[in-house]
Design goal:
Elements (H helix, E strand, L loop, with lengths): L3 H12 L4 H10 L47
Helix pairs in contact: 1-2
């Protein structure tokens, strides 16, 4: 997308005007490395989706955890 970085910058000014770090980075880069792109993909019908996958991060960790000492040697 030609000059996509400028559209991204314009959007950032409108949506997050207090995001100085991101705005300054986009202005300094001026599309050299950072860009706004559009990507389209299709999933094959026979593709099996994994049960635990992005974007549902609520299931990415085990429901139960075991307590472990924070310090080596078991000292509390």
């Amino acid at each position: 997308m030609p000059e996509g970085w400028q559209l991204w910058l314009d959007w950032y000014h409108a949506a997050h005007p207090s995001g100085r770090t991101q705005i300054d980075a986009l202005q300094a880069d001026q599309g050299e490395y950072l860009a706004y792109v559009r990507m389209v993909g299709r999933r094959r019908g026979e593709a099996k989706l994994e049960e635990d996958c992005w974007p549902d991060t609520s299931r990415s960790f085990p429901a139960e955890s075991a307590k472990k000492p924070l310090l080596r040697g078991g000292a509390q």
